[in-house]
């Protein structure tokens, strides 16, 4: 097992996650208007409420450089 800092991962991948959230919402609700940055901020808050600062993940999901 390994520990990961969840908010660090989200911050490192923020552009990719914003894009993925944008595409997912548009796919599910095609005509909805929303602010991509507000959606991302709310997503980050929700993750922060659901996850611990440090979470355990399986070793197969971590590769150190």
Summarize the structure.
This protein has 65 residues and is of the alpha+beta class. It is built from 3 helices and 2 strands; from the N terminus they run E-H-H-H-E.
Write structural notes for this entry.
This protein has one domain (2-61). The longest helix has 15 residues, at 14-28. The radius of gyration is 14 Å and the shape is elongated. It has a two-stranded antiparallel ribbon with strand order 1-2. With 65 residues, the protein is α+β, with helices and mostly antiparallel strands. Helix content is 57%, strand content 12%. The chain is built from three helices and two strands. It starts with a strand and ends in an 8-residue tail after the last strand. It has helices at 6-12, 14-28, 36-50, and strands spanning 2-5, 54-57.
How many strand elements? 2
Give me the Rg, rounded.
Answer: 14 Å
Low-confidence stretches: none
Helix content: 55-70%
The best one-word shape is: elongated
Q: Look at the helices and sheets and give the structural class.
A: alpha+beta
Tally the helices: what do you get?
3
Task: Give a quick account of the main beta sheet: strands, pairing sense, barrel closure.
Answer: 2 strands, antiparallel
Provide the β-strand percentage band.
5-15%
Strand order of the largest sheet: 1-2
């Amino acid at each position: 097992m390994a520990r990961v800092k969840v908010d660090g991962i989200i911050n490192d991948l923020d552009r990719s996650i914003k894009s993925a959230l944008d595409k997912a919402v548009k796919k599910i609700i095609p005509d909805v208007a929303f602010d991509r940055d507000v959606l991302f901020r709310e997503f980050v808050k929700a993750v922060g409420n659901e996850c611990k600062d440090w979470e355990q993940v399986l070793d197969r999901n971590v590769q150190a450089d």
